[in-house]
Amino acid sequence: MNARRKLRSPRSSGQERQASIIASAASLFAANGFKGTTTREIAKAAGISEALLFKYFPTKRALYAAILAEKAPLSELLAAVEDAARKRDDTRVFTLIARHRIQRAADPSLLRLLLFSALEGHELSDMFFRNQHRVFYDYLAGYIGQRIREGAFRRADPLLTARAFMGMIAHHRLLHEIFRVPLHCSPEDTVATYVTLFLNGIRTPSSDTKQAGRRP
Questions:
Q1: How many CA within 13 A on the CB side of residue 24?
Q2: 83 is in which domain, residue-wise?
């Protein structure tokens, strides 16, 4: 048993140290911006030397990619959304997306990171948009377009429709994560309200009738 622990400990401590670096870097970037944060400050916050920092992350780009992977995972969400999309479960598709963006907001540093990266013209902004938002918007627009062709949604530009939905979520997060406007209802109720309002606006009358007929 002790031998196993000794074999596992270097790897475990290495993973913990890497997680600590990511957390320290994200916290400093979110507080001071990218231009206002040095690798020396990141290393100090993580309790290591700069040399060890570069051992784990040889380039800043590697560090930025690790932050996105840690704070904005997408694979599990897309798998769940794709499953709901195959079943044409519109409510679940949009609920999963809204819930992911709103209920993951317990850590507001991601939004601050993205705002800093956009305002400073930082490469993290391009990385996030290319790896996350563009894929996300394109997928959602594709689903909306498909539902329009099937007669379930009203005719509208699919990409603009996807942006309209994500715009609600983005505005909500700006209000509550950046401007600190207090929430007056639970995250679950907030998600349900946004999804209902949006779908009521884009569903065709015949689709509304079918959906109502499914409810108990």
A1: 18
A2: 72-214
